[in-house]
């Protein structure tokens, strides 16, 4: 699987999308996220609609070398 950054996004059983540096976890597999949370991958149909973890998002931007967008830039 092509992965342009050393992390991937995966919805967790805690109903939040997290980023992880582990290989893409299969549905039901435990994984540790960039924010330090360990959760179970949830690949259900609605799981991709879960909100993004703010801490994972900030760490993913740091790892990728991409600045966070300004809150008022939308």
From TrEMBL:
Classification via InterPro entries: Zf-HC3 (IPR031795)
**Lineage: superkingdom:** Bacteria
Chain intervals for the UniProt region annotation (Disordered): 1-25
Pfam families reported for this sequence? zf-HC3
Q: What is this protein called?
A: Zinc finger protein
């Amino acid at each position: 699987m092509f992965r342009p950054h050393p992390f991937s996004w995966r919805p967790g059983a805690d109903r939040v999308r997290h980023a992880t540096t582990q290989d893409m976890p299969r549905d039901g597999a435990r994984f540790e996220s960039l924010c330090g949370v360990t959760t179970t991958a949830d690949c259900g149909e609605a799981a991709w609609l879960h909100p993004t973890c703010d801490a994972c998002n900030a760490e993913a931007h740091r790892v990728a070398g991409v600045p966070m967008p300004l809150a008022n830039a939308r």
